Amino acid sequence: MTSSFEFSTYPARLSDAERDKALRVLRDGVALGRLSHDTFVRRMELALAARRSDELAALVADLPQENRFSRAVLGTVEAVSGFTVRLRRAWQAERLPKLLLPHPAHTHPLRIGRDPANGLRLNHETVSRVHAELRRQGGLWVLRDLGSTNGTTVNGRRVTGAVVVREGDQIAFGRMAFRLSAS
């Protein structure tokens, strides 16, 4: 029998930080091709069920761990490359020709394409005869691709069906790109 001053000696519970560190090493290992997907999944399950830090250490013992310096360098490179991508997009956005949105009172959809009957005729080989349509619905502008061959994109993402657009968005019909503007 134990007295009230004696405690059982169960190992201390793992902290979330220790578990997260082991999971990060496992993720890096699979990203670098050092672990197969099945091995990663199994080790992740074991890491989540681990009760002691030595169990976590055994799961990542064969994987190289980054030191603080390499982690800082890689983080800096990621930040700089992300910045250059954003800078390139901003540079291209300012150089794009403006596509003026119709007046909000305009109730008919604006058809866009190569066909002369369209409200906006774009004479380019990547634009379909009837490519897309822009209409005002419930106070919002909605752009719908009409089954074009080369697609319609908004801010670099291909439109399937319809999407809400607003001033400043970059839209492209085939390879003809514009920046939406209200004025």
From TrEMBL:
Record-annotated FHA domain positions? 110-159
Quote the CDD domains the UniProt record gives: FHA
Any idea which UniProt keywords this protein has?
A: Phosphoprotein
Is Phosphoprotein one of the keywords UniProt gives this record? yes
Please name the InterPro entries in this protein's record: Cell_Proc_Reg/RNA_Proc, DUF1707_SHOCT-like, FHA_dom, SMAD_FHA_dom_sf
Top-rank lineage group of the source organism = Bacteria
Kindly name one Pfam family recorded for this protein: FHA
Q: Which residues form the signal peptide?
A: none
What protein name does the entry list?
Answer: FHA domain-containing protein
Q: What species does this protein belong to?
A: Streptomyces echinatus
